[in-house]
């Protein structure tokens, strides 16, 4: 059993206010886990907000359901973990392409081909060590984890 | 997020204070659209007080850059903080929106 050194949770209707509240929850997490290196805090925060924003922007509620955003953030020795739940959501179809668009090198091409939503998913992939998305009952569950020197 | 706009003579400075996320991104587009509609050609977005930016915020900045260029102007960014810089480099967008140390330096050589 892994020791949990800090934990914060949130469950709210999946709307813009939930994202603002999640920023507050993350700030509180880092107050409790100030020993986590700044780079890890920054990268993990960015990935969590990206994934939660994806739920708010693109989540589709199952017929007759209200869409909820659930977030469980934990800091354990060597690992930061976020379980982001899209509760009451229709199954993801297609499952998000977590590899995102290929990188291009020409700045003009970069500007012309900029794809906002695809960029968010590829950012998540780059910011965490592992990311998975799976269906559990009426919920799509994103699990993000980042290896960190925290708490070792 | 709060936006303030100042005419600095050689350029228009838009200061963005707070988190440039999916909530604030549409507001940034509105502010820059207003500057461009008012004839602003050179725009500097001062990010000194922007503590966080996600892909929505970055998308808004890129959209604003395109808008400024389409109207014959340009948009540049200054005083970028570490998290914003991380997002720019991660997406290679620092090559399109190159950060300047201060707003004054953004159009210094133009």
Structure characterization notes:
The complex is a heterodimer of chains A (152) and B (110). Chain A is built from four helices and five strands; from the N terminus they run βααββααββ. Chain A is of the alpha+beta class and 152 residues long. Chain A has a five-stranded antiparallel sheet, with helices on one face. In chain A, a hairpin with a 2-residue loop joins β2 (68-76) and β3. Chain A is globular and about 45 Å long. Chain B is an alpha/beta fold and 110 residues long. Chain B has helices spanning 25-37, 55-70, 82-90, 103-106; strands at 2-7, 12-20, 42-46, 50-53, 74-78, 99-100. In chain B, strands 1, 2, 3, 4, 5 and 6 form a six-stranded mixed sheet that branches. The longest helix of chain B has 16 residues, at 55-70. Chain B is globular, with a radius of gyration of 12 Å. The N and C termini of chain B lie far apart (30 Å). The chains are: A alpha+beta (152), B alpha/beta (110). The A-B interface holds A 16, 19-20, 23, 38, 42-43, 45-46, 49-50, 53, 56-57, 103-105, 107, 110-111, 114, 116-117, 119-120, 122-123, 126-127 and B 19, 21-23, 52, 54-56, 58-59, 62, 65-66, 82-83, 86-87, 90-93, 95-96.
């Amino acid at each position: 059993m892994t020791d949990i050194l800090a934990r914060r949770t949130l469950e709210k209707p999946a709307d813009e206010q939930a994202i603002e509240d999640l920023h507050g929850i993350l700030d509180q997490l880092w107050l409790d886990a100030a020993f986590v290196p700044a780079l890890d805090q920054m990268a993990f925060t960015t990935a969590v907000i990206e994934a939660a924003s994806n739920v708010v922007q693109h989540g589709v509620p199952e017929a007759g359901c209200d869409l909820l955003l659930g977030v469980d953030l934990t800091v354990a020795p060597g690992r930061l973990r976020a379980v982001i739940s899209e509760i009451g959501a229709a199954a993801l179809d297609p499952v998000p392409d977590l590899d995102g668009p290929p990188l291009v090198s020409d700045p003009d091409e970069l500007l012309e081909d900029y794809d906002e939503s695809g960029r968010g998913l590829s950012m998540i992939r780059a910011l965490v060590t592992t990311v998975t998305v799976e269906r559990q009952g009426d919920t799509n569950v994103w699990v993000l984890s980042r290896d960190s020197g925290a708490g070792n | 997020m709060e936006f303030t706009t100042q005419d600095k003579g050689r350029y228009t400075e838009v200061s963005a204070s707070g988190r440039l996320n999916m909530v604030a991104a549409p507001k940034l587009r509105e502010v820059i659209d207003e500057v461009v509609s008012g004839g602003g050609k050179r725009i500097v977005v001062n990010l000194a007080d922007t503590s966080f930016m996600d892909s929505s915020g970055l998308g808004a900045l890129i959209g604003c850059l395109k808008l400024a260029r389409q109207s014959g102007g340009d948009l540049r960014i200054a005083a970028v903080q570490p998290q914003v810089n991380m997002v720019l480099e991660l997406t290679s967008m620092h090559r399109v929106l190159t950060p300047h140390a201060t707003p004054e330096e953004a159009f210094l050589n133009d």
